[in-house]
Each structure stands twice: as structure tokens, then as C-alpha cells.
Amino acid sequence: MSGRRWVYLTLVAVPLIVAVAGPYVARSAPADRQAPFGPSEWSPFGTDRLGRDVLAAALTGGRTFLVVAAVTVLGAYAVGFVIGVAAAAAPRAWLDDLLMRPMDVLLCLPSLLIIMVAALRTRGSAVAIACAIGIALIAPISRFVRMAARAVVHGPVMDALRMQGESRAYRYGSYAAREMMRPIAADVGVRFTAAVYFLASANFLGLGFDTTSTDWAVSVAANKDALTLAPWAVALPAGLIVLLVIGINLLCDDLLADPQTVALRASAA
Length: 269
What we know:
The protein has 269 residues and is mostly helical. The protein has one domain (3-267): MetI-like (MetI-like fold, Orthogonal Bundle). The protein has eleven helices and no strands. Helix 3 (63-88) packs parallel to helix 6 (126-153).
């Protein structure tokens, strides 16, 4: 494994480990509130606006954030994948239009507007916001899957299988899965980044989790006014979000790179 890939894995692993194991480590933090934006007895990062230790808050604020983002992307991709593949394999043009024209309309709607309406109508329900983010992601996912699937479904290999009278559906499915795996996997990383962005934006605007939550995005929004006084209260949770997003995209690009391109880069180096 190359050193570059180890760096990318580290970028992803740090926020994931913090989110998974952080709550257990934070149990040793003092339960009593301390002076807001002052020194902390437990860590060198000080306290936030509510007098909580900044490190302890960061350790406990990532699990819900990441679970909501991951579940949202998986749900949106499940729906978008079905729509995209069905449109690509549609035997009639009108059926393709019937599936994709509503997606075009959905693409015209600002994603943050959909999220804000859902948040205001449900008084900041995390479930409603996650569903709104999923709805905002379905349209671009379905269009991407349709584009990736059309070249496979209507390609020469599929035509050859049909001409040979191949009747086993798994033969079609296995070939399509192999051909679509790389672009779909890369797109999942992009959509996860988008979900993190939307979720962080909603929480930053006060539309998501409770404003006293230790969620990373909420912590950034709640402590931003004291950035010069207590910079770690903002920099630590924001840094974890940035590490996760950058690490996932760099790792996906490295893992899914074309083998010929990788060989050319290695020979040039």
C-alpha cells in the first residue's frame, strides 16, 4: 500500500474513531459545568459557551452526525439507483421521460429550501431533515445512475448476450454490476460529502439538532461568535468534519482510479 493511501486512510480514520470511540473516552470528563470560554480541568482545549469541555463535546458529537448522514445517503441511493436503472433500461422513450422528468423538476428546487421547509414544518425534527436531505439527493443520484447504466444496458456486450438467447438474469446483472461498480462507488463518496454539507448547513442555521447538542456542526454554529476568544471550540469540530470529507473523497479517488492511469503515474515517478 502506498504512503499516499495511508495518509488518506488516516484522514478518514481519525473522525470515524472519534465518532465511534469518543463517547466512551468522554465519560472520564468532569460532569460539572465550568466557566464558559475558559480553561478546562480535563483538556487543553478549554470550554465552550455552555462551560463544557471542548474535547469532551467533540468526542460525543460525531456519532449522531455521521449516522444520520450515512443512513440518508444509503436511503437516497437505494431510491435513486432504482429510478436511474429503470429509466436506462426502459424499452420506450415515454417511460424514460415519465421517470426522469419529475427528477428534472426536483433538481430545479434549491436543496437548502427543501431542508428549511421540512425543518420549519416539523419544528426541527432530525428525521424530517434527514428525509429532506435524501429527497434533495435522489434527483442527482438517479440522473447519474441513468447515465452510467445506459452505456452498459445498451452496450455491445448486452446486445451480444441477447443475440445468444441468454435467459439467465444474473448474467446480465453480474456484468452490469462489474461495469457500474467504479463510477457508482465514486459517486457515493460525492453524495456522502453532499449529505454532510447539507446536514452541517442545517445544524449551522439552527434547523437541525437541539442548539445545546454537542453535534459537530451545532458546536461550530454555537461557538462561532467567540472564535477569537476560544478558537478550539470552533476549530476542533470543524476540523473533524473537514478531515472526514476530504479524506473520503481522496480515498475514493485513489481506490477507484483506473489501473492504467495508476501505472502511468508510477512509471513517470
